[in-house]
Amino acid sequence: MTFHAITDMHLASSLATGDDAARWRSPRWHRPAPEPSGDLTELRPLPADGLDPHGVEQIIFRRRSTRNYDTGVEIPFDAFSTLLDRSTRGVASDVLTPGAPLTDLYLIVHAVEGLTPGVYLHHPQRGAVELLRAGTFRAQASRIAAGQQYAGDAHVNLYYLAHLPSITGRYGDRGYRLAQLEGALHAGKLHLGTHALGLGAVGSTSFDDEVVDFFSPHAAGKDYMFVTVFGRRRRKG
Ligand SMILES: Cc1cc2nc3c(=O)[nH]c(=O)nc-3n(C[C@H](O)[C@H](O)[C@H](O)COP(=O)(O)O)c2cc1C
Is the pLDDT assigned to residue 127 strictly greater than 90? Predict the structure, then answer.
């Protein structure tokens, strides 16, 4: 089956020639960092030598999705910090700007040691998370992730949101692809990172508009690009 809206959009935002591509990627945008207005908690990432000694290739082989989470425990704050810090440093690219991501990371924190449960915004340039709304939102997390239980059980839900009007203003219609690609690459890195730290993750489908409503008013005007949830696996039996 072909979803024609998808192939039409893909064609409409494709570049025909090398010159078109060069012109398109020439104005790299250094997006200004959002200003925090709530309480900030400084992250405490682990040093590189505290991480998995087996190397990234082994981690790629071991990577699986995790849908069963242990709701009886919290995950360590340094593991949480490391995942946010390492996964948002950017990737080698001729158009994305390292240190100035296009996507904002909204978090639903259920069970992280020393962190009040609630909704947070990650500030990568400050190495901190900002508390937007304190509370326990397991039922809402499950609901917006298309009613799937694992989102309510996971220790953290990470939503990548983007303000598309300002991105397409710089990069044209193709800016949408760029924001989606960045969110997915950051989430992919985070997924590998969870394995390095003895945790697990899964990407999810979510209800786009309900996601934005849930994170609003802060996220009003932004769009949902990608989500991954992560935490400590529940042992069988
Ligand atoms: C964009 C995206 C959306 C996904 N949505 C769901 C979902 O709604 N429910 C689910 O159980 N898994 C979801 N997944 C996870 C995939 O089902 C999973 O990656 C796939 O089955 C491969 O399994 P593996 O990750 O264990 O290798 C999603 C993955 C991605 C990348």
Answer: yes
Residue 79 neighbours by CB under 8 Å, 6+ apart: 46, 197, 199
What one-character-per-residue DSSP string does 12-72 give? HT---SHHHHHHHHSS---PPPPPP-S-EEE--PPPGGGS-TTHHHHHHHH--B---B-TT
Q: Which residue's CA is minimally distant from atom 25 of ligand 1?
A: 65
Write out the two tokens for 223. Answer: 């769009």
Q: Whose CA is nearest to atom 6 of ligand 1?
A: 204
- Any idea which residue has 């499950």 for tokens? 142
**Domains of the chain by residue range:** 38-231
Taking CA atoms only, the protein residue closest to ligand 1 atom 9 is: 204
**Mean pLDDT across 138-151:** 98
pLDDT at 223 > cutoff 70: yes
Q: What is the CATH number of domain 38-231?
A: 3.40.109.10
Dist. CA 89–CA 105, nearest whole Å: 13
Band of pLDDT at residue 41, cut at 50, 70 and 90: very high
Is the distance from the beta carbon of residue 2 to the nearest atom of ligand 1 less than 6 Å? no
Q: Is the CB of 203 under 6 A from ligand 1?
A: yes
Atom of ligand 1 nearest to the CA of 202: 15
Question: Does 146 sit in the ligand 1 pocket, CB within 6 Å?
Answer: yes
What does the angle CA 177 – CA 181 – CA 185 come to, to the nearest 5 degrees?
175
pLDDT per position as a tens digit, 27-37: 788 899 999 99
Tokens representing residue 142 in the block: 């499950």
